[in-house]
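Wait, mind explaining this?

_____
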Amino acid sequence: MARLSQRAMNNVVIVAMLIMIALFNIDSFLPKKGASEFRSLLPQNAYLLKIEHDGNQLIRQGQQWLQRTVEHTPSISPEAQLLGWQNGILQRAPSVASEVAGEEPLVVVVWLAGEENGRVYGFYPRSSSTLVEVDNAWYTLQEVSLDTLLPWKK
């Protein structure tokens, strides 16, 4: 067996460590898969605290949910509204910025536990579907109607 000096052994250890670091991080060197065509309206297992839209709110109070509205009482229960937000699906849409240019969206802020800032959603109602802008990407709303998500809107 060959005898290595202390300096040579240190070099062997350093090279072995560099190889191990590269092996543990190999996934970061590989190309990322494309973004999925579908995503949920809210993150999986997110702890929702509050939904705000135009002075109206859906608020968690202990184990219960409470709807605070500016004008009229919503036609659905707070639990049904919450279920709509949890079951909503967003399907990626091609860029539609020119289609909605000049329109004012229905801006909704969703507050989740553990996040310093609320998530901002811009809803653009259409006769056939609802366009949603979130995180600078465009989606169409699936599996739930805008009236379920925002029962207090006019």
Remarks:
- The chain has one domain: 38-149.
- The longest strand covers residues 106-112.
